[in-house]
Structures are given as C-alpha cells and as structure tokens.
Write a structure and sequence with these properties.
The chain is an alpha/beta fold. Helices cover about 35% and strands about 25% of the residues. The chain contains 7 helices and 8 strands. The chain has an 8-stranded mixed β-sheet with strand order 1-2-4-3-5-6-7-8, with helices on both faces.
C-alpha cells in the first residue's frame, strides 16, 4: 500500500514513504511524523509506523512519512540522533514531505493535516507552528514540547500562537513524558492563543499506549478509543 520516493532537503537525500488510499481522489492528506523507536530500525522496518500509515490510508487519507533521521548515518547511535536533533532541519523536512504529498495528482493539497506519536507528537506540534497550510494537527502523547532542542530554537509550546489549525491531543494519565501537568500546560498554551483544540486523557494508560509492539505499554481499549476519536475529527475537519 506504500511506495518510497526521495526528495532533497538542504542538498541531502530524504526518503519519504507515500501511502495511497483506494479510489481516484482527490484525497485529503496527512504528513505523519515518526516516533523515536523508528530511529533504531529505519523507515521501512517499524511495524507500528507502517501500520499508522496503512490505517490512515484505509480510512481514505493519503499519507507521507518523511524520514526525519536522514541527517545521520543509519548506524549512528540513537543517543546521538536524540541529542543532535534540530528543529530547523525538521521544519524543512516536514515542508518537503508536505510539498511532495500535495503534488500528488490524487491528493487535495488544500486538505492536509499532520499527525505524530511520541517524538512525532512534538514534531507534529512543531510543524503546525511553522506551516499555516496544515488544516489539523493530531498529537499522540508528545513529550518535550516544552523543551528546546540542539539548535537553540524556542520550545514549541512558546510557538502555540503561530498555529492556524485545529489541534487534537491524546494523552495517558499515567504518562510522565508528558506528565498530566505538562498536558495541562499544553492545553493552556493553546487556549491562551485562541487555538481550536480538544484534548483527551485516558486512565490506565501511560506513554506509548498505542504501540502494539510494546506489550508493557500497549492498551488496546484506550488505543482504539483514541483512533475512533481521531478518525471522527479528521473526517469533520479534512
């Protein structure tokens, strides 16, 4: 259901996975920001991330998953990637992924959102703060939204006023990254900036509660509730 294409970002090649729904379209689209574990495995070797793209495609959304870790050698240590990760590079990656998705003949470039889990939840928030073309942003338990990264750029939470799209958030009440207090701060920042937002908090769920690859974290009931809410939100907004 997906294919791989390559685009250039600052003169470096970045693979992008493209997922195509059935039918002629034009389809709404989603840029999907990968979670951190995919940095260990490579863009095509993470069953969770592939399932996210395929699930959204089955629901009628064309998806692009840009490989945000292309700045480092594939075998670079995960701690290096985490420590050196830069928001300015990531913003350029997301723009390239958006442009590639919007250029597809069966995609409606006026109906594109951004979605991400964990590390990708922070990235989705960041992308929505820097690109007014997004119609929606969906954040699944994104941590470090209150923290700046290696380039010294401002923490994404301080950029909430730049958002021009509706935001949907899903968070486990047993999570500590972000903690419930962090989630409250996220919501306050959005509401203070008059951003249309809806946050859902799940008892009995911690970080990564949608990751079926991790039996210790996965919570099927809460995960399916979050997916149902997300697809209803996307259907209404896109």
């Amino acid at each position: 259901m997906y294919r791989e294409e390559t685009v250039e970002v600052r003169g470096t090649p970045m693979p992008v996975l493209l997922f195509t729904p059935e039918g002629d379209g034009p389809h709404p689209g989603l840029v999907v920001a990968q979670h951190l574990p995919i940095a260990h495995t490579g863009i095509t070797n993470d069953p969770f991330q592939i399932e996210v793209g395929e699930r959204c495609a089955r629901a009628g959304y064309a998806c692009a998953i840009p490989w945000l870790f292309h700045w480092w050698p594939a075998d670079a240590d995960i701690d290096v990637k985490r420590t050196e990760f830069r928001d300015d590079q990531t913003v350029d990656d997301l723009q390239a992924g958006f442009d590639l998705l919007a250029a597809q003949s069966d995609v409606d470039g006026e109906r594109i959102g951004i979605l991400g889990h964990c590390w990708g939840g922070r990235v989705a928030w960041l992308g929505a703060c820097h690109d007014a073309r997004y119609r929606v942003c969906v954040v699944f338990y994104g941590g470090r939204i209150k923290a700046p990264f290696a380039d010294g750029a401002p923490a994404p939470i301080t950029l909430a006023g730049n958002m021009r799209c509706a935001v949907l958030g899903h968070f486990g009440n047993e999570d500590q990254s972000p903690s419930p207090a962090d989630v409250n701060d996220y919501e306050t920042a959005l509401r203070d900036a008059a951003v249309d937002c809806a946050f859902h908090r799940y008892d009995g769920a911690g970080h990564g509660f949608q990751d079926f690859n991790n039996p210790q974290r996965y919570r099927e009931t809460q995960s399916e509730q979050a997916w149902a809410t997300t697809l209803a939100f996307l259907s209404e907004r896109l």
